[in-house]
Specification:
By secondary structure, the chain is mainly α. It has one domain (2-149): Up-down Bundle (Four Helix Bundle (Hemerythrin (Met), subunit A)). It has 6 helices and 2 strands. Strands 1-2 form a two-stranded antiparallel ribbon. A hairpin with a 6-residue loop joins β1 and β2. It starts with a helix and ends in an 11-residue tail after the last helix. The mean pLDDT is 98.
Length: 160
């Protein structure tokens, strides 16, 4: 049973990550840093994807050049370029795949609790929450693309 749960979790998380990648790649440079801040929405999605994949939230540190600006309710100090966000996406993809592949039943049942205690989930549920959060932002990005360039990436059923 554990194998099918892990495979299903990865198929869906991987698909959401792949869809985010497709959105970032499709976004033309002229839409990257407009008032709608495509780059920022993509960064926000990646930042929290990374955070929710960190099994000990107190130990979370985003990779360079990223900061903890999302926790401080402020914009990052710079506009991240596509290659920076794609590299972050590849980092998160590997982190997520590795986490899910090595989960035990006991780990799935263990608790994931943020520092304030406002989020208290089983590891299984924080993975589902993470997928939902990521897909929410992918939908926003795809809507942005449809409205501005009249195109958006295709829906993916499972991870590539």
């Amino acid at each position: 049973m554990l194998d099918i749960v892990k495979q299903s979790l990865w198929n869906q998380m991987g698909a959401s990550i792949d869809m985010l990648e497709d959105s970032i790649v499709l976004c033309p440079e002229e839409e990257w840093d407009t008032d709608l801040k495509f780059w920022y929405q993509a960064f926000h999605a990646l930042f929290f994807l990374d955070y929710y994949l960190t099994m000990e939230p107190k130990d979370f540190i985003p990779p360079q050049p990223f900061t903890e600006s999302e926790f401080e309710d402020r914009m990052p100090e710079k506009t991240y370029i596509k290659t920076e966000l794609l590299n972050y996406l590849y980092f998160c993809r590997e982190k997520g795949k590795n986490l899910i592949e090595h989960l035990t039943e006991q780990q799935l049942k263990s608790r994931w609790i943020n520092l304030s205690g406002s989020m208290n989930y089983s590891v299984h549920e924080i993975i589902l929450y993470n997928i939902r959060h990521l897909q929410h932002h992918v939908a926003q990005l795809n809507l942005h693309l449809r409205q501005t360039i009249k195109d958006a990436p295709e829906w993916l059923f499972q991870a590539k």
